[in-house]
Design brief:
alpha+beta; two-stranded antiparallel sheet
Amino acid sequence: MLQTERNGATTQRPSPSEHPPEAVRDPGPSPHRTEGGASRLLATGTRLLILIGSAAILSFNAGAAAPQGSTGTPGEHPYLEAHIKAAQRYTADHTQFQALKGPFPDGDGPAVTKACLTCHNQAGQQVMGTKHWLWRVPDKKYEEYGKGGWLINNFCISIRGGNYPACTKCHAGYGWKDSSFDFTKTENEDCLVCHDTTGDYMKDEAGLANPAVPLADVAQHVGRPGIANCGGCHFAGGGADATKHGDLDESLLNCKIDEDVHLSKQGAGMDCVDCHTTEGHHIAGPDYLLPANMQETPEYPGQKLGHMSCASCHGEAPHNSFVLNRHYRKVACQTCHIPEFARGGLATNMWWDWSTAGKTKDGRAYEVRDKDGDVTYATIHGSMVWKKNVVPTYRFWDGRMSFMLATDKLPAERPVWLNQTIGSYNDPNSKIWPFKVHEGNQPYDTQLDKLVVPHLYGDKGSGALWVDHDWPSAIKTGMEIAGLPYSGHYGFVRTNMIWPITHMVAPAKEALTCVNCHSEKSRLAGLKGFYLPGRDRSRGIDFLGWAAVLITCVAVVAHGSGRIFFKARKKRGSK
């Protein structure tokens, strides 16, 4: 059991093994689906009861406006308020600053940073306290949590096995090539990776600036981070475009409104930082142990909020329907409004099998690609599966995650969950959220029963898997560099990771409808422990459903017969 603290409050955090996952896939037909015709008839009764009840509620609420103070229409205040205010913030004309005219030696990013800090004299210290700089939880008490710490992932596994230069190409700094990197030197920070507006800036291994970049020109044309700045790293998470997240890839740079209503220029035309707002270089969003701040209303006048919650712009009752607004209590907006992920034409990685890596043809590394150009086998990575338009997995989630470290002993359950959602139906803070579940197969120590940290990146003869293609050497070398014990015996174990889906929001017309969940073929088939009308069965409710149908039929017949009888009687009386 882990504990985390923020502002003096202590939270108990289960480890992944203490939190068994709910079903990832539809477990298949439930026993009641194989029953006879009478049972199916009763199930129809349940649906009819639901329809009758829903019709009554909807008719009562038809045409009713959302509660006062909420916003029901995208584009209305305060939907775009954050974006408009941010777009109105203009920075100074940096071409007028002598310090930025250089000349800067080729690839000398630290020289540019020193020039930036002559004016932005607080920025250096601000950046040092952020997770984008540290790559771990800023609190020293939990600094092992983060990609710069002992977290293991399902993609390139860990940077700690001497893999720094390959991974830190996406670090907001210069020169993180090994564990000796100095995090206290402000000149090691990279201002341009987030603030370049030219599109000419590029980073090389260990995060160094590419020598071909005209640093003086880029430094004089800086501004507010755009989608390309954030996406330069986050779209390529996991080693390549669209690999990790499923809802973040390069298609979002110029997406149509059907892919994302917020980022599309045809839609709201927003940037990442409109929701991931920044204060003192701290970018709003989750860290590894603490959830994103989902606060929706200020606690005091002038309080600056991030826009991590949909309700911070759309309000808590954005629909003109009581029934739909009521769903907000237990269903995240993303669940209905992101029907699939990887919807922009690029497939996302769903399976990565490291056990097949190392095979060569005629002594050389090789790749196999599918018809879409996605790598299905690579000597340096193993076997992979890519998918588009993927229906998410659904879980109850309160915004927190638990994580496994390289130093943890593996749980008995298989597959091993490297991270795990926290939440349940009975938790008032939990809602149904959509997720991408990524499956993998990676090396572990069969004697110590722990995951290993292989050496992937390096020179020929260094034992690096990507050049020497030998698992025993890669694991032995990586564990030595990481300073972790290793028995010398390894195997492969199935591992899963889970990622929340929050981007690629579809237009309202493409949102899920009632039958996507409230039916026998429910998307929520994997969520158990509660009664879901239309998906689940109850003989008592089935009986009431048919009783309501029967009563309705009798009432209709009686009413119609009565009208016919009294009309005929009236005609006879008038003669």
